[in-house]
What does this fold into?
Amino acid sequence: MKTTSGVAARFISFEGVDGCGKSTVMDQMSAWLQAEGIPHIRTREPGGTVLGEKIRALLLDPSHGDMHPRSEVLLYTASRAQLAAQVIQPALAEGRWVLSDRYTDATLAYQGYGRGMDRHALRRIQDWATGGLQPHHTVLLDCDLRVAFQRMEAREGAPDRMEQEQESFHRRVREGYLQLAAAEPERFFILDAGKPLAEVLDSFRDNFWLPLLGRIRREAG
Ligand SMILES: Nc1ncnc2c1ncn2[C@@H]1O[C@H](COP(=O)(O)OP(=O)(O)O)[C@@H](O)[C@H]1O
Ligand SMILES: [Mg+2]
It folds into this structure.
């Protein structure tokens, strides 16, 4: 009998506006996987490779306020191309699960819905850059923007370039994420992240993790 560590590795991305709780929920997921003995890695976007971390610094630098939206897309996407090829694809091939803090949906939400760029073009660029590598599951953390901002304020540090955007921009991003989720209900799991943490984690466990665990145990036979 195979163990759950022998099942086909899953690629799971976590999406949502900053401050909604992605890192917190990923910590929990990582702990559950570890408890099951399921090998996995965590990556972040932009970044996750040596090249990607350098691109991340360029993107988040507040002095690059004049960055053209197309440059922005290509830098994010360059970081993602490197991550997909150098980290995600090899990990999955070795049977390790991948938890990614953001992926292609972030470009659709931020640059497509947020900045109003051509979403059809953005999708084609994403497909090309990632070689079509898509997450098996995407956990979308959705919460009121004011709640997310309050959580961000409680965190240390000056706002980065993306955080300095207007509230209307973040509202379009949130709505965009919800539209992406509605268009692909099988891939997306929407987590109501506005509630107290214990409730958010209970809901994540009951409605995402336990059903997934049930499926992989059946696969493992
Ligand atoms: N459901 C929640 N209720 C209250 N605080 C939360 C909740 N989820 C996360 N936090 C806190 O809010 C802040 C932002 O969460 P984090 O996981 O870092 O968000 P993200 O990674 O999406 O930016 C952190 O300080 C975290 O401890
Ligand atoms: Mg985070």
